[in-house]
């Protein structure tokens, strides 16, 4: 037997050996031939290896090229969609279809702007607002912002997700979150990131348009409040722009935004009322909406529901009486502001009320504190409240109904669903507790305290 190494550049690639059936010595020329064959075999092996590496690299390059071309095609589809007038919902829907995943786009405060697809019914929009998931979301988006790429994130109750911050040169515009059970491939992640860029274009466009409209409305409201002559022209233009008749009266909805950003709350409300007509903007740290009378109750209800869903907070909304904005805006805004101040004193949050039911009391109590209002009620009708609390006698409601009925015992008894004799017995109990309340001054104080107490109870439960 004879053997030689397969050498190439000093590296052993293998061994070539020959054997005979009988023991013998190989001649030098046979050994030389074997060495030559080994050299050729080593070159053949190396060429085969290099060819396989080249083929594998070429296949990988073709795959990468195809993926890149696919990502570019997707990007072009998204851009074309936006160019045709497609909105944020359309972009999100297209991304969801391409990635076979759920997609949610968040606004600049990382609240849900649109939810495209929720394949497994995960209710992701609500779950992202939960404290633990919110913390994870903010951490992931902070990391995404620092590296400029998407990052993986784990949420409670949501399939594996990838999040990416959407930023412009000067501001955070929002974020994109995608989730599905199967992991995303590299080219799908690139598609997601290109989709985030397109979402950024739409968000930036929407932001600029919204800011322009908000600024126009704010300037209009300031002009109407200050009774500038040119404000009437701007009012007519904006009302016609929003499909409102400038010759008809409107209703003012005054929204108590507390420490929330007026622009953010306004955009939430607009998203909840896409088919309703109103002009919205900020004036004196309050959000103000001018609506046609038919739309005002629907806008108020939808606005409160949407803000609560998006922020977890219940807002107070004051609905004015009908008025002509060109001539009565200033007085209406002042009266509505006093009423809204009273609502804040009467109820912590979540009230939708009308100016008519509060105007008289707002004049007297709008600038009082809640403690002062409580003290007035306790001092005036505290004995009734205590009796009702201890013995469940319902004297407070009886007295309120009696006064609202114009001292008519028959009407009050029918309203309460009790016999007139029962009503008279309750009124006797009231007189024993409050003394002679029927004098003009005392009657007014009692009726005012009762009305404030009943308003407070009604507002608190809305």
Quickly list its features.
alpha+beta; 5-stranded mixed sheet; 12 strands; Alpha-Beta Plaits; Beta-Lactamase; 15% strand; 4 domains; single chain; 462 residues; 60% helix; 5-stranded antiparallel sheet
Description:
By secondary structure, the protein is of the alpha+beta class. It has four domains: 2-68, no CATH class; 88-207, GAF domain (Beta-Lactamase, 2-Layer Sandwich); 226-351, Reverse transcriptase/Diguanylate cyclase domain (Alpha-Beta Plaits, 2-Layer Sandwich), CATH 3.30.70; 370-460, no CATH class. The chain has 15 helices and twelve strands. The protein has helices at residues 28-83, 88-99, 124-127, 131-147, 186-225, 231-241, 262-272, 296-311, 325-346, 355-365, 370-391, 395-404, 409-416, 420-434, 440-460, and strands at 2-8, 11-18, 102-106, 112-117, 151-153, 161-167, 172-179, 251-256, 279-283, 286-291, 316-319, 352-354. The chain is elongated and about 140 Å long. It starts with a strand and ends with a helix.
Helix content: 55-70%
What does the oligomeric state look like here? Answer: single chain
Per the CATH scheme, the topology name of the largest domain is Alpha-Beta Plaits
Low-confidence region ranges: none
CATH architecture assignment of the largest domain: 2-Layer Sandwich
Instruction: Please provide the count of β strands.
Output: 12
CATH-defined superfamily of the largest domain: Reverse transcriptase/Diguanylate cyclase domain
Query: Which band does the percent of strand residues land in?
Result: 5-15%
CA distance, first residue to last residue: 101 Å
Principal-axis shape: elongated
CATH classification, class level of the largest domain:
Alpha Beta
Main sheet, how many strands, which sense, barrel? 5 strands, antiparallel
